[in-house]
Amino acid sequence: MQTERVLSAFDICLIIGIGVTNILYSVFSGSVDVLGSLTGIAGVLCVVLVAKGSIWNYLFGLINVSLYAYVSFKAGLYGDTALNALYYVPMQFIGWWQWRRRGASVSGGADGHAAVVKARRMTPRQLLLLAAVCIAGIVAGAFVLEKLGDPQPWKDSVTTVLSIIAQFLMALAFMEQWALWIITNVVSVIMWSVCVAHGEPHSELMVVMWVFYLANSINGFRVWRKLSKIAS
Question: What is the pTM of this model?
Answer without folding.
Answer: 0.76
